[in-house]
Amino acid sequence: MRSPSLYSQDDPISAALKPPSSETESERAFRLEQEAEAKRVSEQIDEDLREERERLKKRKGDVKLLLLGQAESGKSTLQKQFQLMYKPHSIEQERSSWTSVIYFNVVHSLKHILNTLEAWDDSLDDEADTPDMNSVATSSRMKLNGNGISDQPSPSTSLMEQNGSLNGSPGGSLAHSEMTASTSNSGPSSGGPTQIANLRRRLSPLIATEAQLADRLSGGITVSGSGKGSVYVRSGWQARTIDKIRSKRPTAATEKKPRESESMDVPPDPLVQEIAQMLQACEEDIQELWSHPTVKGMLLKRRLKLDEWSEFFLKHISRVASPDYIPTTDDILHARIQTMGVAEHIFDVNIHGKLVTWHLYDVGGARGQRHTWVPYFDDANAIIFVAPVSAFDQYLEEDPRVNRIDDSLQLFTQVCSNALLKSVHLVLFLNKTDLLRAKLDKGLKVRKYITSFGERSNDYETVVQYFRAHFLQVHRRNNENRRVLYTHFTSVVDTKATQRIIGNVRDSIFRGYLQSAALV
Ligand SMILES: Nc1nc2c(ncn2[C@@H]2O[C@H](COP(=O)(O)OP(=O)(O)OP(=O)(O)O)[C@@H](O)[C@H]2O)c(=O)[nH]1
Ligand SMILES: [Mg+2]
């Protein structure tokens, strides 16, 4: 057998690269010019890559800050607040790329509403066919929770058994009894099934764009077990979507560091333009569905559960569906896209007249993403652990038996007890306090989901202090080094309040940092 040779006449690559024998003088000159340009571009890419590696390297004196916490806790939203504070021009560069995320959030929410209505309709048909109404009502209602949020409380997990369970009765039946207690019918059958069928038909072309949008955002990457039809994105996705539109080969420089004038001259993405037109044409239908008495009734009775960002964008649909819609900063803060792996962001932070480079790591919080965190623990200076306290009535998408507060406490235990992190400055954000307040105002009872809450008063102050006490207890029990835990009650979509807190955190990290560096 002949061994292939680079110089072989038969080598397919050499043959393909060989100029045609009929090449004229001017064609040759053109070819050589093209080859020289290709070489220059390739060398520029190598140079950009080298610069990028150099830029990302943590130097002595830099601060390394990790944002940790479960999925949907608000880490990327907090990262956006850092960006707004320390690199506001980069938000401008990215602004247009958030349109596709927001359209995806809207389309996905509409699909969830229509699917839930359909499931409810089916369950009513089942009920009509079955003599044992009680048992069927229970099972059919559980089937309704298509967004991964189950109404069923989790059995106590190992962590909370160790640390004093929040959920006093394993497999407790309060939420279950809440589900079975109400048998009144607020399903679609009582509120104009023909109207809903018509809306479903008219909205179907818009809903059919969900997969394309997901593909555009994720770059075709799907994450197994992501449930709920979620889309995960890697660091630098904004620049990649822009590059895709330009149909240009992405370079390392555009992946990590969009050029200054980037967003201004981006040609419109045909897919996004098409969806914008559909949204405009469907705006009245979306309004009709959103204000439909059946939808309102099901939301009120919690037979339909919507994520906070769904409600936000549906409430603002007339603005989102308007021609030439450009996301506001508030829209960007409310947009939801899941982080895959670990995304690094670099900021120059002015601390009392001295510029310090901060490397901020925003991690993916879903259970399947947590193994990617550990390599970043080494030489970290500080952690902001983000725990959403509004999640007391929610269960993990990854494991619907686990209450989300319970999961946050387990994760916080792991962070506090990790040997690599034992000297790291620790900050706790008890986040989504605005949503907690709204849930309590609506009358949601904490004790129905967390039985150990007992007969305490269901007011905001009692509830947040109760959760805070549990996190403090975890910290106390895993605090060999007697480090301080700095706690803040936050709503990281609130820019003014969050930036004030970021200022406090920056000063406290810097004080600890100076002390540990023995500079004071
Ligand atoms: N109302 C309200 N919404 C919030 C708050 N914090 C985050 N959100 C919203 O919650 C959703 C999830 O927030 P993200 O920042 O994407 O969550 P994450 O922790 O980065 O999630 P992963 O990337 O999956 O780990 C987004 O739609 C945010 O706008 C808050 O304090 N209040
Ligand atoms: Mg994130």
UniProtKB/TrEMBL annotation:
Gene Ontology CC entries for this record: cytoplasm; heterotrimeric G-protein complex
Positions of Mg(2+) binding: 339
SUPFAM superfamilies referenced in this protein's UniProt entry, alphabetically: P-loop containing nucleoside triphosphate hydrolases, Transducin (alpha subunit), insertion domain
InterPro entries cross-referenced by the UniProt entry: Gprotein_alpha_su (IPR001019), GproteinA_insert (IPR011025), P-loop_NTPase (IPR027417)
Polar residues: compositionally biased ranges: 132-162
Annotated Basic and acidic residues bias: 25-43
Gene Ontology MF terms in the entry: G protein-coupled receptor binding; G-protein beta/gamma-subunit complex binding; GTP binding; GTPase activity; metal ion binding
ATP-binding recorded as keyword: no
Keyword Nucleotide-binding: yes
Residues covered by region (Disordered): 1-44, 130-196, 243-268
Stated name of the protein: Guanine nucleotide-binding protein alpha-4 subunit
Organism in which the protein naturally occurs: Gymnopilus dilepis
